[in-house]
Design goal:
By secondary structure, the protein is α/β, with parallel strands linked by helices. The chain has ten helices and 14 strands. The longest helix has 18 residues. The protein starts with 5 loop residues before the first helix and ends in a 7-residue tail after the last strand.
């Protein structure tokens, strides 16, 4: 047993008196240590390079889509088996939304605009993430739209009619515009599609004279080329981004969630307006990306939604690009 004598006690007391005081605001109480972490994630943006071009993925939350009836041409047990193999829920699939912002040729270019405040309660995170990435909507020069489904265009105009990007030139595929802005097609459309036509008019009607239409296949911004990919919608368009030896493809909705439609490219999502054309485009672009080892961005892939495509039997798999803290 150690004996503490008078000399030891005095020395210890002197040392305690000489020690600097600890500010009370630096102390962590037991209650603070046990407090729950914040419920929100860190901002959902991720920057990386394609050659000399900087691209930023911007997340806009997700929508929990019921699995039953989601795939038109596959039995529910097969779909659920694919989801189980990917460790995903088998009753309601979380479908993410991810746009791109491209800094190219001294311009700030957006590809698609997200849900704005018109989507599911679990979406609508786009503007907060966009600003957190250091961007300002007033400084956007160009917005490229892949197609006119609501989750890609509603971010252009809020529910109260406010236009979000006052200084941006908006470019859209001419075949998409011709379809959705046709009164004849709207009047002939099934009741379930009428809302889509009306929403397109809500978004684009006030700016119709200023919207620029392009025929897919040419350059639409420095280093960005449009790629015809009709099927998911009549004018559905993808975008190639290239700089030096770097290249990638913005796949838009060529597939919905990769766990289902990259793995099983012949499956058809309920949102595909022309299922046969969509399947053909999907196989063509997935095969091209796999063969050429081109980086890809999928609108509905888990954030940050970019990686590479590898052949896997009769289908493919998405191989995520390794996350890196450097740009």
């Amino acid at each position: 047993m150690t004996t503490i004598n008078r000399r030891h006690a005095m020395a210890a007391g002197a040392a305690a008196l000489a020690a600097p005081a600890i500010a009370t605001d630096t102390l962590v109480t037991r209650a603070q240590a046990q407090a729950p972490a914040a419920a929100a994630q860190a901002p959902g943006f991720y920057k990386y390079k394609v050659g000399d071009i900087t691209v930023t993925a911007i997340n806009d939350g997700f929508f929990a889509r019921p699995v039953e009836g989601f795939v038109r041409n596959a039995e529910l047990p097969a779909v659920q088996a694919a989801l189980t193999a990917a460790f995903l829920p088998t009753n309601a699939l979380p479908i993410p939304f991810n746009t791109l912002v491209v800094e190219t040729g001294g311009r700030l270019v957006m590809i698609d605009a997200g849900n704005g405040n018109n989507g599911a309660p679990t979406s609508g995170t786009w503007m907060a993430n966009f600003r957190a990435a250091g961007f300002d909507p007033a400084r956007v020069n160009t917005i490229l739209i892949s197609h006119f489904h609501g989750d890609h265009i509603n971010g252009l105009r809020l529910r109260d009619g406010t236009a979000v990007f006052p200084n941006a030139e908006i470019q859209v595929p001419a075949p998409e515009w011709a379809f959705w802005m046709s009164d004849e097609r709207m009047n002939q459309a099934p009741e379930g599609m009428r809302g889509g036509f009306q929403n397109v008019r809500r978004v684009f009607g006030p700016m119709a004279n200023d919207v620029k239409r392009f025929e897919p296949g040419g350059e639409v911004a420095p280093g960005i080329t449009s790629i015809a990919a009709h099927g998911h919608s009549p004018g559905h368009t993808c975008f190639g981004i290239a700089s030096g030896t770097g290249k990638m493809i913005y796949m838009a909705d060529t597939t919905n969630h990769p766990a289902l439609f990259v793995r099983n490219p012949d499956w058809s999502a309920v949102f595909d307006q022309d299922a046969d054309a969509a399947r053909a485009v999907r196989r063509r672009l997935l095969d091209m990306a796999a063969t050429e080892k081109t980086r890809v961005h999928f609108y509905h892939a888990p954030f940050p939604a970019n990686g590479y495509v590898a052949k896997d039997g009769n289908g493919y798999q998405l191989v995520p690009a390794q996350w890196t803290p450097s740009i």
